[in-house]
Structure formats: C-alpha cells, structure tokens
Amino acid sequence: MISEVVWLLGMVVLVCLPGLCFVALFRLIDYVANDELIARVENGELRSGSPTRREAAGRADRAPSRSPPPDERVVCRACDAENWDHASYCWNCLAELS
Fold first, then answer.
1. pTM
2. For residue 83, which of 9, 11, 29, 87 is within the disulfide window of CB 3.0 to 4.6 Å?
3. Residues 62, 51 contacting (CB under 8 angstroms)
4. Rounded to the nearest 5 degrees, what angle is found at the Cα of 86, between the Cα atoms of 82 and 87?
5. Rounded Cα–Cα distance for residues 68 and 71 (Å)
6. Which 8-state DSSP code applies to residue 75?
C-alpha cells in the first residue's frame, strides 16, 4: 500500500514538474523583460546595426556583390570562392585560407 502511494506520488511529480518548470521560466522571462526598451526598439528610437526586414527587402535589388576587386583576392582551395587578400577564412565555406 505504501509503495503504491509513493509510486503514484512519484508519477504525479514526474508528469507535473516539467510543465511547472516551463511556466515558471516563462513568468521569469516575462518579469525580466524590459517593456520600455522593447517599445523603443519597435518605434525605431534605438537602431541596431542590422536593417529591419522591410529595409533589407527594399535594398535586395541594389545590394553590392560580395566579390573583392581583382587585385585583392585569394581563391579558396576548398570551394573556389574568391576572398579578400587579408581574409583568414573563406566567406563561403569557412575553410582556413593559407
């Protein structure tokens, strides 16, 4: 009888504990979030270094090519991509350039 109660209690803990941990983590993140900062970013008051999706879509047709000038390039031996002369790693496959 006692072992059945212990088993039942253990099963209840194993079933409910992950859900309770998720809810607690979600509430903690909600508590820590700085709503004023989020509102300022959404209003465009704070600019990150990267463009928004809307800005990036508008610039897609006039984006510069990634290839370096002909006199300053190194060809990757792994993928044959052209890289800048001072690059340590290939921009295409991340292989080390030597």
1. 0.32
2. 87
3. no
4. 55
5. 8
6. E
Residues whose CB falls within 8 Å of the CB of residue 46, separated by 6 or more in sequence, listed in order: 37, 40
Q: How far is C-alpha 66 from the chain's CA centre? A: 22
97 neighbors 89 (Cβ within 8 angstroms): yes
Instruction: At 17, list the tokens.
Output: 């504990």
Write out pLDDT tens, residues 41-56: 778 776 655 555 555 5
Rounded to 10 degrees, what is the CA torsion of 90, 52, 64, 49? -60
Q: What 3-state DSSP class applies to 70?
A: helix
Locate tokens 């300053």: which residue? 72
* Dihedral sign (CA 3, 8, 14, 20): negative
Domain ranges of the chain: 2-63, 66-98
